[in-house]
Amino acid sequence: MNGGRSRRAARAAGVAPRRHTPQRAAVLRAIAESARFLSAQELHARLVADGVSIGLTTVYRSVQALARDGLLDIVHDAAGGRRYRHRPAAGHRHYVLCRHCGHSQPVDADVVEEWADGVAGRTGFSAVEHTLELTGLCPTCTTAG
């Protein structure tokens, strides 16, 4: 994962691209290599274990910048903490997240997008954004009881 995509995404979103740093690149690489959502603390521990010299504050700042640049999806865990996952394409996705193990599954939510666009049209609001979080128990956790 290189900084070129981050800078292009920022320009496409109409914001000034952020400074590309080795630490930010390491954070993005660690997230992109993960199959699940990670907390900033988990990212920090993973990076330190891999020999990356990075502070927890830098990890927090990096995920905030990467999320603003449209490179991360964010969900909230059962305790309200933020968890991050690489967003492989433009736009945002919706997920159903297991409350027990944290497993996530992307879901098709075109109807939600259409509804949000309709709300904007009916109310006259512009730049309408939305957040949708679906939680439940995954099949493995349901079977395990």
TrEMBL record:
Q: Please identify the protein, giving its name as recorded.
A: Transcriptional repressor
So where does Zn(2+) get bound?
Answer: 98, 101, 138, 141
Q: How does it assemble?
A: Homodimer.
Tell me which species this is from.
Answer: Streptomyces buecherae
Q: How is the cofactor bound?
A: Binds 1 zinc ion per subunit.
Q: Which residues bind Fe cation?
A: 113, 130
Q: Which Pfam families does the protein's record reference?
A: FUR
Cofactor annotation: Zn(2+); Mn(2+); Fe(2+)
Its localization reads: Cytoplasm
- What are the protein's UniProt keywords? Cytoplasm, DNA-binding, Iron, Metal-binding, Repressor, Transcription, Transcription regulation, Zinc
User: Which SUPFAM superfamilies does this entry report, sorted A to Z?
Assistant: Winged helix' DNA-binding domain
A single Gene Ontology biological process assigned to it is: negative regulation of DNA-templated transcription
Query: What family does the entry list?
Result: Belongs to the Fur family.
Q: Which GO terms describe its cellular component?
A: cytosol
PANTHER family, per this entry? FERRIC UPTAKE REGULATION PROTEIN, ZINC UPTAKE REGULATION PROTEIN
Q: Where does the UniProt entry say this protein principally localizes?
A: cytoplasm
What are the top taxonomic ranks of the organism? Bacteria, Bacillati, Actinomycetota, Actinomycetes, Kitasatosporales
Q: Which GO terms describe its molecular function?
A: DNA-binding transcription factor activity; transcription cis-regulatory region binding; zinc ion binding
